Fold:
Amino acid sequence: MQEGGSTGGWTSLASLMFRPDVYGATWSYYPDSLSFHAHQAVDLHDDANAYFDADGNPIGSWRDGDTVTVTGATARVR
Structure:
């Protein structure tokens, strides 16, 4: 038996599916997204820039090293 959260959620589920001879049960908590088309305010697949939208407006928040910047921009919902 095993458990995992976030990326470990997918790992624990995959272990159960691919190795049922080893793992008889799993608890997979809050697994990561399967698609990053709507990961926070950025579409990691299709957006040309993670910091500014196509019109040059800043996207809601981003991290620069240890500094997190949050603007008044509204997050896009898909």
